[in-house]
Amino acid sequence: MIKLSKSSLSIKEKLAVSNVLDREFLGMGQEVQEFEKNLTNFFGRPAVVVANGTAAIQLAIQSSGIGVNDEVLVQSLTYVASFQAISASGAKPIACDVEPDSLCINWRDAEKRLTENTKAIMPVHYGGAVGKLDEIYKFASANGLVVIEDAAHAFGSNYKGNRVGSFGDIACFSFDGIKNITSGEGGCVVSSNEKVIQKIRDARLLGVEKDTDNRFLGRRSWEFDVRAQGWRYHMSNIMASIGIEQLKRFEELASKRRALATIYDSILVSAPIDRVLSNLTEIVPHIYPIILHSGERSYIREQLLSKNIETGIHYQPNHTLSLFKDSKNKELSVTSKIYPKLMSLPLHPDLTKSDIEYVCKELIKLL
To answer: Is the same domain home to 156 and 82?
Structure first.
């Protein structure tokens, strides 16, 4: 089976986990501290690691003072985690349309959905691409909005020569099993706003103030104060030990992803599809989405699966889900048009050139 996605692990990650198990300190301690420092160096500004990417977004929203009765502008075409993280904070996700070329949020459409309750905009870096981020920040600044980037797909991507996460208000990343680097489960928040960073440090440990400092020293906080809602969202040493080794391998993993996507591009250049990702010298592609010109997507996926090729759909629009349907929503014309034709092909660092040639051969036959 040619898998749609998978973890790519070496013996070094396995040995790192074994070392943590041998030490028998599995919670939040020196590995978490080291991973956090390494990420801070990677981005050139403070990073806080948490349990997963969804927790990262939720804590970023909460720590920005956004909550009940507030609204966050976000594209509908994203994984449900983006919407659930917003609603978990008490705020309301407002579904927006996407740009037809990048499938990233269309800020002009978002502008139509502004209300007095709008407090933030959340651009989702779809597939590793970033969209019109300069224009989004200008729009946000003009309307007093915080920009909280859902960069789950974009670890290592650049925008105009600058690493995503190294600039802007707040960026949130995911390190789950299939992301550009993994810690098994995990995520991080990156920001230059020290107040936000400190709030997240406390909130990930049930709101116990300054508990991070004690955990990194191998101690517990027995007497403490809690002033804000917190959650059990900290990372464990087991997860961090994987992340430390994966970060060392980042250039290798990113290079493989770019090379594989480039092979897809070269073979599918004349196929009756639209390729979503571009500028592969700047981005690290997390998925390889295509837009079919014609044909029945479910039939094509079934036939490819019969040839031992997994495919995916990234993603069902959130405004079609029962929890997030809203009769007040204006039409999302681009999202509605593209979604039935959207399909993702296998992409992960353990694929070979011959794997991709086989996938493309079978796809082109069907098309």
So the answer is: yes
- Measured CA to CA, the distance from residue 110 to residue 115 in angstroms comes to 10
Peptide bond preceding 233 in cis form (omega within 30 of 0): no
Shared-domain flag, residues 197 and 298: no
Give pLDDT tens digits for 107-132.
Answer: 999 999 999 999 999 999 999 999 99
- CATH number, domain of 306, equals 3.90.1150.10
DSSP symbols for 44-77: TS-EEEES-HHHHHHHHHHHTT--TT-EEEEESS
What distance in Å separates the CA atoms of residue 57 and residue 148, rounded to the nearest whole number?
8
Amino acid at residue number 123: P
243 and 275 share one domain:
no
C-alpha span between 157 and 53 (Å, rounded): 17
- Let me know whether 215 and 299 are in one domain: no
DSSP string of 296-358? Answer: -HHHHHHHHHHTTB--B-----GGGSGGG--TTPPP-HHHHHHGGGEEEE---TT--HHHHHH
Q: Is residue 2 part of a domain?
A: no
Other Cβ atoms within 10 Å of 334 Cβ, number: 19
Q: What is the pLDDT of residues 208-255, one digit of tens each?
A: 999 999 999 989 899 999 999 999 999 999 999 999 999 999 999 999
Total of domains in the chain: 2
Q: Give 155's DSSP letter.
A: T
Instruction: Tell whether the torsion through CA atoms of 273, 274, 280 and 284 is positive or negative.
Output: negative
CA distances to 16, 44, 51, 130 from 165, in Å: 26, 9, 18, 11
Looking at the domain assignment, is residue 5 inside a domain? no
* Same domain as 224, residue 133: yes
My answer on whether 254 and 238 are in the same domain is no
CB atoms within 10 A of CB 148: 32
H runs (alpha helix) in the chain? 11-23, 30-43, 53-63, 80-88, 107-111, 133-142, 194-203, 211-216, 237-248, 250-267, 297-306, 333-338, 353-366
Residue 4 lies in a domain: no
Domain boundaries, position 122: 11-248
